[in-house]
């Protein structure tokens, strides 16, 4: 279940970054040590992990990659989560919001 909470948090964090509401966002997976830092720069988005730089990508490229992975995760595995579980609605809401954000990039 933690994957759904983690990806929802990632989508919401990147929404804040890509809409300009924040120039810096950090993501840490729920119940794990995986983390990434995203920073908006003049040249795109800088992505750093604990051990250093990971990538520098354009906002549209980042949005498309994350949206594609989140949609694939949902299409292949979300049906296994009970509909009454609150995480399903949270995930789908975050995905819908991020889809709009990605379209604007």
Describe the structure.
It is globular and about 45 Å long. Helix content is 51%, strand content 23%. Helix 1 runs antiparallel to helix 2 (59-77) and helix 1 (2-18) runs parallel beside helix 3. The protein is built from 3 helices and 4 strands; from the N terminus they run H-E-E-E-E-H-H. With 105 residues, it is α+β, with helices and mostly antiparallel strands. It has helices spanning 2-18, 59-77, 86-103; strands spanning 24-28, 35-41, 44-49, 52-57. The mean pLDDT is 96.
SSE layout and pairings?
Blueprint: H1 2-18, E1 24-28, E2 35-41, E3 44-49, E4 52-57, H2 59-77, H3 86-103
Antiparallel strand pairs: 1-2, 2-3, 3-4
Structural class: alpha+beta
Q: What helical percentage do the residues reach?
A: 40-55%
| Rg, Å, rounded | 14 Å
**Tally of extended strands?**
4
Q: What is the averaged pLDDT score?
A: 96
Distance between the termini: 30 Å
What's the SSE pattern?
Answer: HEEEEHH
Reported for the largest beta sheet, the result is: 4 strands, antiparallel
Shape: globular
**Spatial ordering of strands, largest sheet:** 1-2-3-4
Strand residue content: 15-25%
Low-confidence stretches: none
Give the count of helical stretches: 3
Keywords:
105 residues; 3 helices; alpha+beta
Summarize the structure.
The protein has about 100 residues and is α+β, with helices and mostly antiparallel strands. About 50% of the residues lie in helices and about 25% in strands. The protein starts with a helix and ends with a helix.
């Amino acid at each position: 279940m933690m994957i759904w909470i983690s990806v929802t948090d990632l989508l919401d964090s990147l929404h804040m970054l890509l809409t300009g509401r924040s120039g810096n966002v950090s993501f840490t997976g729920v119940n794990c040590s995986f983390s990434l830092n995203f920073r908006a720069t003049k040249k795109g988005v800088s992505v750093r992990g604990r051990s250093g730089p990971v990538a520098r990508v354009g906002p549209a490229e980042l949005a498309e990659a994350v949206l594609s992975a989140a949609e694939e995760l949902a299409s292949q595995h979300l049906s296994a989560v009970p509909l009454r579980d609150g995480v399903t609605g949270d995930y789908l809401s975050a995905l819908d919001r991020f889809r709009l954000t990605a379209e604007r990039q």
